[in-house]
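Standup notes
- HV: blocked on the assembly model, inputs below
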Amino acid sequence: MAWVHKCMIPPAAIRDTCAAMCAELAGPGGTGMFTTPLAPEGQTEATHYISVGLIEDTFAYLLDNPEALAQACQQAGLPVTLAELQAILAACDVSDDQPQAAMARLGLVMLGGE
Amino acid sequence: MRASPITARPITASPIAARAISAGQLSPMAEAILPLFTNGVQGVWFDPSDFSTMFQDAAGTTHVTALGQPVGKILDKSPLGKHATCPGATTSRPTIEARVNRLLNSAVTGGGAAPTSWTQPFATGSSAPEASSLYAGETAYVQSGTAQRPFISQDITALANATYQLSMQVESVTGSVQAQLAMLPNSALAGSSFSFPVCEANPSGGATGIITTGKLVATLTISSTSGTVGCRFGLGASGAATGTLKFSRPQVAFNDDQFKNAYQLVNTATDYTDIGAPRYLAFDGTDDWLETAAIDMTGTDSVLAVAGIRKNSDSVQGFIAEFSASFASNAGSFHLTSSLGATPSYGFSSRGSATGALADAMSGYPAPRTNVLTGIGNISGDTAILRVNGAQAVSVSTDQGTGNYGNHKLYIGRRGGTANPFNGRLYGLVIVGAAQSDAIVSALEKHMAMKTGVSF
């Protein structure tokens, strides 16, 4: 198994959808994603969530290939169309960046610190 | 502090200890640490330098076999078997690292004019990969120009207040090429600075020193502003240059890394050579953590925690280790923290029934930095001591209430597995639920210093 570093930042509005898809497609290794809230500095309500780290290369491939992702969703019985998946991927920031670099690029900071 | 004799304690069998003993391979340090966990004394001992104790998955079915892999489970090397796992997604697992060179594709292979992971902003003059003259099987880069700029560049994410060493091997050079024309950061970060010490390839030193063959070294110091820095290697880095330069082995390393002068070949973030640098669990500061099953410390009101760490940032109060989901709401808890929000501090806290004592060293420890941290807690004695690199940093005697420590999970890298992520490295962690003598504390700190790559 090969691992690929990915930084994934979905908007808050589709966070639950993204988390559910990851859990459904990746099983235990994809369960519990997008638990860290982000927002522009000074705001207290999350506008985005982040998961960053190593994922299996097969799932990294899906992030770059909506058609393959749609096929995987279909096989998993997820009721989502290719157009919807393309819209979801377009709304998310997916990169090879380190989290600090990605957050800086998007003008976001972590919430929830004490 | 009460002394705790250990010499008469027998070593309790554990799978790891038994394996080592049967093979006659128990290290002197293991011989010293393992007896601390006998006679009912609870605790943990995590050693990321030992591949045999780590698994890529939380179930513990796929061993860690190489640097750059995720760690979903790390075995407790104490006889108590309080192994730590990450019950979250794969992205929440820390990775096992021994990374020195911050660059990617340091072999500058592929890509024609601009190698993979590199850019060639000006792309004037000529530029081509060529077999290294010095290192068999490695690639060098040959660049020529007449008042031109063929250099290649790679961005790194520079940490606030960090100092980096940039280096490369100049294999041959023609023309009078100044050091700053061969290697330079393109940094727009306010307050950052760059200097060229005297080195093999720059015998006169300074930015305008004329380079010769050998290792070229420069120092980049980042101010309190973090951000992206383009690191330029090759002809024309700071302006138009004339000549021919053949170079190899570009590297950007933390200046305080004891292995900064040893070249590390990096292909990708998860594929690089092991040059013997200390291994660590890398916590990304967003969602990585590990946790153990509950550890029953209800029989003691004393604890010793020793950790080797490097913190990358002070921006969030990062929890290196916390006994319970939250110190604030659980009696019989303690924790080690890497900062207090924006305060460049370290912290150790201990509590019984009362709110507890916060031994926070409030200044003098800005990130990034590498240290051995020791927390010593005693509830009935109202003791909370934080030691940094073997010396006491702060001691407080605030009332901790009554009772013993609890029967809690130990969270590593993130409060309760949900908040306050630690952004940094963990080189090792030993927690012992009993008071220990000064000699044992010192021995554990020296052991952790060796694992961490610091000296004191």
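- HV (later): unblocked. The longest strand of chain B covers residues 241-254. Confidence is low (pLDDT under 50) at residues 1-24 of chain B.
- Next: hand off to the docking folks.
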